[in-house]
Design brief:
518 residues; Rossmann fold; GMP Synthetase, Chain A, domain 3; six-stranded parallel β-sheet; 31% helix; globular; AMP-dep_synth/lig_dom
């Protein structure tokens, strides 16, 4: 194969700055290579073999990157654990993934320690990462100190195994068979996704990591960029102005964001936005939720034609929309990747006509997956060799996909199907709104009525006056049958750091006394 892949690139140019920690500490590729080699030697001495798994409860930065790089050259599965989970939830992931080693940063010891206990993992296989201690965990140095920093023998490609967030029931690990390739060759194959966006290899490219690395897309885009020779610049947490500073400071050429990030960037005062040079950006890629047309248009006006969009799932397959595609089809999430196919079906599994809303099914050529330990769920989400994550949308005549909503979020009021995302997209562009969630609540006459929960913009008082102002702004833009019948206000919207709205947390209290939610 070619000349991509981190380990190959690091051997060729050990002085390349491969990563920059959130505190600004740079890390040369040669040093990272040595660290991941020592970890492989240490874990092999612990008995790990190809096909085994490791888990990491670590913040954004090179500590997690070393775990990822070690697993991917030793034939192991690496599962980065969501650091917002509780101890029992962490324990479930560690146990279900059958991890043979568990790494916890001292920052997350409060939940990581009970997580290890809940998982029942051998304390001799639990290691503290970072400069501090984790009660009952072995120091990381015990595993790696004195190990050779030379490339291990019999290298074989590993993989990540991410756990889906799971709208119902426990999350499931999305597991794919290992390909048995040389790690660098396998890493080079990983970069195929970035070539769809036109990425080029090597410096001076730099990728800004804006979201937690436990998310599939963050790992996939960051890891693939690294394997193309791009420097990874990590943010510890999202901050709009800090993102602009880092783009200018490091000449960032590519990043992965979500629409919430765009909204936060656009609400910065004009004088702050104008303070930073973002002209280095070539590929600002976004996904995870439908982006309101005015917000994306404003980003294109500000950053130029570098805003790319895609729709995909941890399970595989997806679409892509170039800036030109989106300008010609405002609101689209793109057309199918060259190796992916789309199918839109009704509730009976029959394909629907062009332009008709239905459940979105996808498949990706040559890529199979299973939900680890759950054959029933694996099969339940399948239709022939397609799968779905439960999203609703429609296709245009020329193959462009438009998202409507998640099936679980659909509101049925008086027999009519109402898509909350459409309403949210109209409300969120109001200058006094920082964030919004729309969902159905019980209504004895209509079945469901429309509720809007609004996070006011900074300094804007919540209350009936703001609600009336929002409703007035919908006049002529949204049919009155889609207007919220009531408003609640919230200080902070419950979103995951990747932008996903935890709508069930808002909706469930309204249905708790009902036998069933519609």
């Amino acid at each position: 194969m070619g000349s991509l892949g981190f380990w190959r690139l690091a051997a060729t140019d050990p002085y390349w700055v491969a990563a920059v920690d959130p505190d600004g500490t740079p890390h040369k590729a040669g040093d990272l290579l040595s660290r991941c080699n020592r970890l492989v030697h240490g874990l092999r001495d612990l008995g790990l073999e190809p096909g085994d798994g490791i888990c990491g409860l670590v913040p954004n930065g090179v500590d997690g990157l070393v775990l990822y790089l070690a697993a991917l050259q030793a034939g192991w599965y690496y599962t980065p654990v969501n650091w917002h989970l509780t101890g029992p939830e962490i324990g479930y992931v560690v146990a279900d993934s059958e991890a043979k080693a568990f790494f916890v940063h001292e920052r997350y010891a409060g939940e990581g320690v009970p997580g290890a206990e809940a998982a029942g993992i051998d304390p001799q296989r639990c290691f503290a990462v970072g400069s501090g201690e984790v009660a009952g965990f072995r120091p990381y140095g015990e595993l790696v100190d004195g190990r050779p920093d030379t490339l291990p023998e019999q290298r074989t490609a590993g993989a990540t195994m991410h756990y889906t967030s799971g709208t119902t029931g426990r999350p499931k690990g999305v597991r794919r068979a290992l390909n048995g390739l040389d790690p660098d060759d396998s890493a080079e194959l990983m970069t195929f996704l970035l070539t769809f966006f036109g990425f080029t290899a090597g410096p001076p490219n730099a990728h800004l990591v804006t979201s937690p690395s436990y998310h599939t897309a963050v790992t996939q885009f960051g890891g693939s960029a690294l394997h193309m020779g791009h420097s990874l610049v990590y943010m510890d947490r999202w901050d709009a102005e800090e993102a602009l500073r880092l783009i200018e400071r490091h000449g960032i050429t590519n990043t992965h964001m979500v629409p919430t990030h765009f909204k936060r960037l656009l609400t910065l005062p004009a004088e702050v936005r104008e303070r930073y040079d973002v002209s280095s950006m070539r590929w600002a890629i976004h996904a995870a939720a439908p982006c309101p047309v005015p917000i994306k248009q404003a980003m294109l006006d500000w950053w130029g034609d570098c805003i790319w969009e895609y729709y995909a799932a941890t399970e595989g397959g997806g679409t892509i929309a170039s800036p030109q595609d989106w300008r010609e089809h405002p609101g689209t999430v793109g057309s199918a990747w060259p190796i992916s196919e789309l199918l839109i079906v009704d509730d009976d599994g029959a394909e629907v006509p062009i332009g008709t809303h239905g459940t979105i099914y996808m498949k990706m050529a040559g890529v199979a997956f299973e939900y680890k330990g759950d054959a029933a769920k694996t099969q339940a989400n399948r239709l022939k060799d397609y799968f779905t994550v439960g999203d609703i949308g429609y296709l245009t005549e020329d193959g462009f996909l438009f998202l409507s909503d998640r099936k679980a979020d659909l509101i049925i009021s008086g027999g009519a199907n109402i898509y909350p995302a459409e309403i949210e997209n109209e409300i969120v562009i109001h200058p006094k709104v920082a964030d919004v969630a729309v969902f159905g609540v019980p209504d004895d006459e209509w079945g469901e009525q429309i509720k809007a929960v609004v996070e006011p913009a900074e300094g804007v008082p919540p209350g009936p006056e703001l609600a009336e102002e929002i409703l007035a702004s919908l006049e002529g833009r949204l049919a009155r049958m889609k207007w919220p019948k009531s408003f609640d206000f919230i200080e902070h919207m419950p979103r995951e750091p990747n932008g996903k709205l935890l709508k069930r947390r808002l909706r469930d209290p309204y249905w708790k006394d009902r036998d069933a939610a519609i």
